[in-house]
Amino acid sequence: MTYQELQNLFKQRLNRRDVTQTLVEGFISHSIQRTQRLLRTPGSENAAIINMVAGSNQVPIPGDYLKMVNAFVGDGDPLVRTDLTTAMKASRTPGTPRFYARNREKLVIGPTPSGPYQVTLIYHANFSALSAPTDTNWLTEIAPDIILDGALAKACEHFSDPRLDRFENSFVTAIVDLNTQAQDDELANSQVGNSFSMSFYEDLE
Asked: Which residue has the higher pLDDT, 77 or 192?
């Protein structure tokens, strides 16, 4: 579903004459921002391969980063998340990286390799922005109903519309369903722990 189609359907379902175009865009934007804070599915994952020079112990975090799923170096040696103090201490010694910790817009890696190396980050990312009428992103293609229900709930809150509970409950149910589906897929036929949180309001990293 394109951004324009999403707006048109939103207006039809809200069915109010006092909603402006600016409000429509704002309600949809709010819903997308809220959804990307709560949804933890493979569709919201992204990957970045970052080439690091010898002696470098800080890896830049991608601009669309939301939450880490996995991090590893080289051919697949995993990095274990730890506290910043431990990572900083480890980074002062040479060797194969084993730990990482977030320090604002960078990850501190330790120990620090003496030669060039690669870091691969698998992380939950922000959805692509919608601006042009024909724009789409993963969410508009797979689950536009979540955007619509979230936007409608925000609109009902704004206008003190009695349909608020209906749209809010539909939004929350859809988020739970997708997160549960992703968790079931992650755990199917394995003992692997889930890589995302089922707690909606867990503090973001």
From this structure: 77
| pTM reported for the whole predicted model | 0.74
Q: How far is CA 58 from CA 73, 97, 99, 103, in A?
A: 13, 11, 12, 9
156 neighbors 30 (Cβ within 8 angstroms): no
Q: How many helices (H) and strands (E) does the chain have?
A: 6, 8
What is d(CA 202, CA 205) in angstroms, rounded to the nearest whole number? 9
The CA-atom distances, in angstroms, between 70 and each of 15, 41, 98, 161, 165 are 44, 14, 13, 42, 37
- The length of the chain in residues reads 205
Judged by average pLDDT, the poorest of 24-28, 53-57, 73-77, 84-88 is 73-77
135 in Cβ contact with 70 (< 8 Å): no
